[in-house]
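Reply to dn_fold:

You asked what the input looked like. This is it:
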Amino acid sequence: CKSMDPISPDQSSISITKGSTITLSCTYTVSARSLHWYQQKPGSRPEFLILIIESTKDVTRAQQPDPRLSIKLHKKEQKVDLEISSNAVSDSALYYCALEPTVTETHQALY
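and this is what came back:
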């Protein structure tokens, strides 16, 4: 990711220990209506996981939500976190953070 990207991951990859809790973080540089997380497994399309509305901090989950997932917004630091508890091998995937800006098109960053 370029430093000019409106949203970017804090780390490009991360290793996990089975059963642990992990936090993925993205930093954004533009005002956003909402911030989203997606998961993409090999050979599949990205799947929506969870989003948070910046102004109200209301959370919307996928139609079949994973109770192990939570999202946190740090508005002052312009960061959004995805927390995954009780990690399993099946959590190995690409994770995307994306934002819905108030003016321009949607931007996303690869985790």
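The CA atoms of residues 5 and 83 lie 23 Å apart.
Hope that clears it up.
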